[in-house]
Design goal:
The complex is a heterodimer.
Chain A: E1 10-15, H1 24-33, E2 60-65, E3 80-85, H2 94-98, E4 104-106, E5 112-114, H3 124-128, E6 135-137, E7 142-144, H4 150-154, H5 160-164, E8 170-174, H6 175-191, E9 198-200, E10 212-216, H7 238-259
Chain B: H1 15-39, H2 46-70, E1 83-84, E2 91-92, H3 99-127, H4 134-160, H5 173-192, H6 203-231, H7 241-266, H8 278-302
Helix pairs in contact in B: 1-2, 1-4, 1-5, 1-8, 2-3, 3-4, 4-5, 5-6, 5-8, 6-7, 7-8
The chains are: A alpha+beta, B mainly alpha.
The complex binds iron/sulfur cluster (2 copies).
Chain lengths: ~270, ~300
């Protein structure tokens, strides 16, 4: 891959149609970022024992198991949808919008990064991230998530997950190039009759566009991703919230003045 | 109209934040009531106003302690809320669109108003005159009350300015927390008047004010359920219905007390209540529990 340059926008194109659920990305991520992982848990209803993205899991291979109860017939096999989930490095990032300390910054690679020495653990970003990406590290008392391997990019290396992915489900590169590759891929799938294939976060309908965008084999909600209608920023509620408070305040003050109005001294 | 779908993680804002919301609501509500009592122009309301300013002080002091404790092992970085220490980009932090950012500054400013007003009330009680000349006291209280209204309400807006289920599905939380904070403060003052017989003149008036606040609160609770229902996240409230029942019982208690007071006035009573009766104590405690329960129901239903 070409040299990684500061000032250019980088991201991931995750093509879920070729993900085999091997979790090499999860392992590579943990290894490079020295994440211990959570204590192993057996969820018993899925091949997914990671559960969710959190402070220890910055990549999470989701298994969406659409296995029908009745046996499938020829040509009517049930599909497992797999998707290596990650921070989307949103153009309009909800986490960054609410962070009161300025800990969340945009790097020279246009990725979203949490500065550990600045973060004070208020968890406002956790409440805001619509993708459930951010987790709290109890040891450091700070918010953690995928850094898009900021340290590796600075050293001219591609992120560990993309390097480890054996099927190229995770592709890393300059965003414009990834978008072109995604357009070609989705067109090819459509021409093969796979009409359900769709790109998520490729255009600006979701949070102004995602640096880490996806090719999905079903609608976004199936993968636990908000659709364009639900992809809303926290600040949408500022005006309504304060306006209701202001109207309540006016009515309450009038009520108080009426109750405390001057009466006879008798 | 569309149904909201949420795929977020809960921020684990629990007990510290619950009690912060509780004390912030009471402190700010008490400050607003103290100011309004002063504006009645009746000197007989001054003892109750002075109680209001005095009680807002400890209730405010505990707020930053709770907020700092909530940061866990990063507690020593509490000041990062105000100062950005990003290398090469240091300066003051202020994001008007992030209620948490505005709220921190508002708490600092409110702390100033509360400290001065409480000291003034304390001196007034001891020497008969406070530190602020009367002519300046009212404008000072009005400014403080404006900040107090913000403090009582921004906590609700802060929850809504997120992508959490329930919280972000409604716009009423700011108003709801304000109305309930005022109602709780009125109940708290009614309780404290037990120890200041000279303030009992204001007791009935506080009940009446509490009645108005409770009507507002009830209306906003109804709107809360309508908005959350419209977004499709009402089921999350089901486990917390017992808490909602306590909150509504507090509202009902306030309304009954207020009705009693208004009736007494209508039948020619002066509005002066001789002393704090047992039912006032019971109702006040119920109202305070309701203030806490309401916040708990809202906070826990999303997480
Ligand atoms: S996915 Fe979440 S954590 Fe990542 S940039 Fe977007 S809002 Fe922030
Ligand atoms: S937890 Fe850290 S990164 Fe998240 S909003 Fe708070 S200060 Fe910002």
């Amino acid at each position: 891959m070409a040299t990684i340059k500061a000032g250019e926008t980088y991201g991931f194109f995750t093509d879920t149609s070729v993900c085999i659920g091997c979790k090499a990305c999860e392992v590579a991520c943990k290894e490079w970022n020295q994440l211990q992982g959570d204590s192993p848990s057996f969820l018993a209803d899925s091949f997914d024992n990671t559960g969710s993205l959190d402070a220890q899991n910055w990549r999470h291979v989701k298994f969406i198991e659409h296995v029908p109860d009745q046996s499938s017939t020829a040509g009517n096999g049930a599909a497992w949808l797999m998707m290596s989930d990650v921070c989307k490095h949103c153009k309009h990032a909800s986490c960054m919008e609410v962070c009161p300390t300025g800990a969340i910054i945009r790097t020279e690679f246009n990725t979203v990064f949490i500065q550990q020495d600045v973060c004070n653990g208020c968890r406002n970003c956790v409440a805001a991230c619509p993708y459930g990406v951010i987790g709290m590290n109890q040891q450091t008392g700070t918010a953690h998530k995928c850094t898009l391997c900021y340290d590796r990019l600075q050293g001219g290396l591609e992120p560990a997950c993309a390097k480890a992915c054996p099927t190229q489900s995770i592709q890393f590169g300059p965003l414009a190039e990834l978008q072109q590759a995604a357009d070609v891929r989705v067109a090819a799938l459509h021409s093969q009759g796979v009409t359900q294939a769709q790109l998520y976060g490729r255009d600006d309908k979701v949070y102004g566009g995602l640096n880490a965008f996806f090719l999905l084999m079903d609608k976004p909600e199936t993968y636990g991703l908000p659709n364009a209608e639900n992809a809303t920023l926290p600040s949408r509620n500022d005006v309504g919230g304060y306006l209701t408070a202001a109207v309540t305040a006016v009515l309450a003050v009038i009520g108080g003045l009426v109750a405390f109005r001057r009466r006879g001294m008798g | 109209m569309y149904l909201a779908e949420h795929f977020v993680q809960p921020p684990q804002w629990t007990w510290y934040i619950l009690f912060y919301f509780f004390f912030a609501g009471l402190a700010a509500g008490a400050y607003v009531l103290g100011t309004l009592l002063r504006f009645s122009g009746d000197p007989r309301d001054e003892p109750a106003a002075s109680i209001a300013f005095l009680v807002s002080f400890p209730a405010t002091v505990i707020c930053p302690v709770l907020l700092t404790a909530d940061l866990g092992v990063s507690w020593w970085k509490f000041w990062h809320m105000m100062v950005d220490v990003t290398p090469g980009d240091t300066g003051l932090n202020f994001k008007y669109w992030s209620p948490m950012s505005v709220g921190v500054w508002a708490l600092v400013v409110f702390g100033f108003f509360v400290t001065v007003s409480a000291f003034d009330a304390w001196l007034g009680n001891r020497r008969g005159a406070g530190i602020i000349p009367m002519v300046l006291n009212r404008p000072f209280n009005v400014l403080g009350a404006v900040v107090a209204i913000f403090i009582a309400s921004y906590t609700g807006v802060l929850l809504s300015v997120s992508n959490q289920p329930v919280w972000s599905d409604t716009w009423v939380l700011g108003g709801l927390f304000l109305a309930s904070g005022l109602s709780g403060a009125a109940a708290l003052l009614a309780l404290l008047i037990r120890n200041r017989p000279d303030a009992s003149f204001s007791l009935g008036r506080l009940h009446q004010a509490d009645g108005y606040f409770s009507v507002l609160e009830l209306a906003l609770i109804i709107v809360f359920f309508i908005t959350v229902g419209a977004a499709g996240t009402l089921a999350r409230e089901v486990p917390w219905l017992p808490l909602w029942a306590i909150a509504v019982a507090g509202v009902a208690g306030s309304l009954v007390e207020a009705r009693g007071h208004v009736r007494m006035q209508a039948t020619g009573g002066s509005g002066t209540v001789a002393g704090v009766r047992l039912d006032t104590v019971v109702v006040s405690i119920l109202v305070l529990l309701g203030v806490l329960a309401l916040r708990a129901a809202v906070i826990f239903s999303a997480q």
